[in-house]
Amino acid sequence: MSVPGPDRTPCRRLPGQACADHTGQGGGFAEFPGSAHFPLIFAALTCAGTIRGITVTSTLSQTFAISLTALALIAAPAAALQKGAAPAASADCDLVASAPWGGDPDSGLVAEAVTICGEDGRTRATLSLVDADGETRYQGIFPTDEVMLLAWAEPGQMDEALTDWLGAFTDLDNTAHIPGADVEFPFYAADGLTDADIDTLRAEARDMACYVQGMESAMCLVREGEGVREIGVWLFPG
Questions:
Q1: Residues 78-124: pLDDT tens digits?
Q2: Alpha helices, DSSP H, located in 97-228
Q3: Which end of the chain has less neighbouring CB within 10 Å, N or C?
Q4: Is 155 in contact with 164 (CB distance < 8 Å)?
């Protein structure tokens, strides 16, 4: 079954790297009222700032960031700013957060998030999984106003939101918890995976990271050899 989700544009893959590009205008998910059992997402939403092993820093001085943002807003086309996205706050630009896979510094894989403020007034977050040799094994780019945990951030609080976002990589889920397609908030297998493949993953009970990729969905990943693989999308109540 095809995975529902934001429109994707082609993006360059490195050897052994999965690559997700979510720079479009989003969409593609139906509204799902109510609630369901989805422990990791709810933990991330209700336990802000409690995750250990995650560091957040600013890569530019406040003065320089403000100057860049001012220039970007002046140059931004008026039509782009009328699409509903609020102009990026300078304090939300050029932030970097990182978290080791499973919270283990010796895991050989680190999740890194970087915010970039564009000339169109929008803030985007790049998510990368980098191995011990510095090779990028997975990467995606997301407008922050289309990702639940990031969209909720108040100006100046994006660093905390990035910490919560990367919590999916420190507090791992397990493939044994993958639900079927006949529940209120189902799991949809990634392209190329069959129902039998998903059943095998359930039986193997492997570590799985499900990070929030939209307003009502999480992308689930497993490690495969030296790389990382998308296995599907898990819906949750928006």
A1: 334 344 555 556 789 999 999 999 999 999 999 999 999 998 989 99
A2: 148-151, 158-170, 195-204
A3: C
A4: no
The SS3 call for residue 224 is strand
- Spatial CB neighbours of 177, under 8 Å, sequence gap ≥ 6: 208
- How far apart are alpha carbons 102 and 170 in whole angstroms? 4
* Chain position carrying tokens 């600013």: 58
Q: For the residues of 11-66, what is the DSSP string, one character each?
A: ----TT-EEEE--S---------S----HHHHHHHHSTT--SS-EEEESS-HHHHH
- Sheet strands side by side (includes 55-58): 18-21, 136-143, 123-131, 109-117, 95-100, 55-58
Distance between CA atoms of 227 and 238, rounded to whole angstroms?
A: 30
Give CA–CA dist 127/123, Å, rounded. Answer: 13
Render pLDDT for 25-52 as a digit per residue (tens, 0 to 9).
333 333 333 333 343 443 333 333 333 3
Mean of all residue pLDDT scores within the chain: 74
The DSSP output letter for 94 is: S
